[in-house]
Amino acid sequence: MTFMVFSACLAQNKPSVPTSPALINESYDYIGTQFDDSDAISSGQMLGNYEKMAKTDTLASRFSGLVTEVCMAKGCWMKLKLVNGKESMVKFKDYGFFVPQELVGKEVVVNGLAYVEEMSVGDQRHFARDAGKSEEEVAAIIMVEKKYAFEADGVLIKK
């Protein structure tokens, strides 16, 4: 899975997938698979779900959160704020779509699979570079870290 992340972010000759959202209704635009937000849980509830999960678990989920970061290279991942300083790293199913970098600070609803992973130092440094972190910040990453992750097949963007 790590190799796929690196390849997708670094692949420059892959045809670009449109990131312009299409109208879903008066409240949301969407990217990826269209879905209904009626059973979406809050980011606080999602954190509670993550805290109960083991490293090998996956949980079909739909939750809302504030976008705090987007991959600067091409929008191939984003981070959503949970609560208590925690966040969820959201990647997109089969890299079938990307999100615009302008989503930072916007409220979204994601649909897909939640899981917990241990992220290697190399992967953390890769994502830090994607996010535009300084070399000093990248070099300060020295330990494997438990991460709350999410593979989204669709994203609703609140208008």
For this entry, give a set of tags.
alpha+beta, DUF4920, Branched-chain amino acid aminotransferase, OB fold (Dihydrolipoamide Acetyltransferase, E2P), 159 residues
How far the N terminus sits from the C terminus, by CA atoms, comes to 33 Å
The coarse silhouette is: globular
Largest sheet, spatial ordering of strands: 3-4-5-7-6
Question: Treating each run of at least 4 consecutive H or I residues as one helix, how many helices?
Answer: 4
Residues in helix, %: 10-25%
User: Could you name the CATH topology?
Assistant: OB fold (Dihydrolipoamide Acetyltransferase, E2P)
Q: What is the strand content? A: 35-45%
User: Count the strands?
Assistant: 7
Q: Report the mean per-residue pLDDT as an integer.
A: 86
Structural class given helices, strands, pairing? Answer: alpha+beta
Q: Total domains, how many?
A: 1
CATH class: Mainly Beta
Secondary-structure element string: HEEHEEEEHHE
Low-confidence runs of at least 5 consecutive residues: 1-8, 10-24
Architecture (CATH level 2) name: Beta Barrel
Q: Summarize the main sheet.
A: 5 strands, mixed, barrel
Query: From the alpha-carbon coordinates, what is the Rg to the nearest angstrom?
Result: 15 Å
Could you walk me through the main structural features you see in this protein, from its secondary elements to its overall organization?
The chain is α+β, with helices and mostly antiparallel strands and 159 residues long. The protein has one domain (2-9, 24-158): OB fold (Dihydrolipoamide Acetyltransferase, E2P). 21% of the residues lie in helices and 36% in strands. It has helices spanning 2-10, 43-52, 121-130, 135-139, and strands at residues 22-23, 28-32, 58-70, 77-81, 87-92, 107-119, 145-158. Strands 3-4-5-7-6 form a five-stranded mixed beta barrel. Strand 1 (22-23) and strand 2 form a beta hairpin. The longest helix is centred in the first third of the chain and has 10 residues, at 43-52.
